[in-house]
Design goal:
Rossmann fold, N-(1-d-carboxylethyl)-l-norvaline Dehydrogenase, domain 2, about 260 residues, 10 helices
Length: about 260
């Protein structure tokens, strides 16, 4: 309905997966089966596969983003990893990149790195609760297993995903922020009321605009531009509200004068 009411605005276009799952009756708790199974209204979470042991190979971290580089290197030190601190990765080193909005393939080729030895890790929300590792289509299995074992070495759960522009969290959160900015741009509600409606109505810990400020409007803009350029999907087109405030260094809650 929203898609129709907004004259097929791409940001609100339903996914084909959503339609097929609705037709199949996979409605979640209502039917006992969705992306998860439910018993007695409780989500049944399958056990995760145990990671392989870290094989001790050296780890080289891309310095392209100084903040993310420090995050990952600090973690590697805590995990007692062997760090390759050369200007370029040594032969046989596990290569770790930290892209925003682009996939592991694009990140490795952009920096002239070997995609067969490369994985990406998402640092957007920190590395304490869960770590998402992304492989390229040609990352050698031994390097993927090594990264999985390494980053799970302190008991923190690790999700290994296939190549995807914007990982999972970057893509979802940037979209939420962008839609909030689109509503603010339309003038349908004040920035404060948009955030209040989301926190009270949906139970989110932050409204979309405040969350955009927390993540950094510039980073959200970079993620969206990169995903848009990679996929060509107009649903990732940054709104003028987001773009202008990011470029001005202002809060996304800043109203128009």
């Amino acid at each position: 309905l929203i898609y129709e009411q907004f004259f097929h605005e791409p940001r609100f276009r339903p996914s084909t997966l959503m339609k097929s799952r609705m037709d199949a009756g996979l409605l979640g708790r209502k039917t006992g089966q969705g992306f998860y199974a439910y018993e007695g209204g409780r989500q049944q979470t399958p056990e995760e596969d145990a990671p392989a042991e870290y094989d001790g190979r050296p780890v080289w971290v891309s310095p392209s983003n100084s903040e993310s580089h420090k995050q990952v290197v600090d973690l590697l030190k805590k995990l007692n990893a062997k760090i390759d601190d050369g200007e370029e990765p040594g032969e046989g080193s596990l290569i770790v990149v930290t892209p925003l909005g682009i996939d592991a393939t694009a990140a490795s080729l952009k920096e002239g790195l070997d995609p067969e030895h490369t994985v990406a890790i998402d640092t957007l929300l920190g590395l304490d609760a869960r770590r998402t590792v992304m492989k390229t289509p040609v990352t050698e299995p031994a390097f993927t297993a090594s990264a999985h074992g390494l980053f799970a070495g302190d008991g923190t759960p690790v999700t290994v995903i296939r190549d995807s522009a914007g990982f999972v969290a970057q893509r979802i959160l940037a979209m939420i922020v962008n839609i909030g900015c689109s509503i603010a741009q339309s003038g349908a509600a004040t920035p404060e009321d948009i955030d209040k409606a989301v926190t009270l109505g949906l139970g989110y810990p932050h409204g979309p605009l405040a969350f955009g400020d927390f993540l950094g409007a510039g980073r959200v803009l970079e993620i969206l531009i990169s995903i848009f350029e990679t996929t060509g999907d107009p649903r990732y087109r940054p709104t003028p509200w987001l773009r202008r405030r990011a470029l001005l260094g202002k809060s996304l809650l800043t109203p128009e004068n």
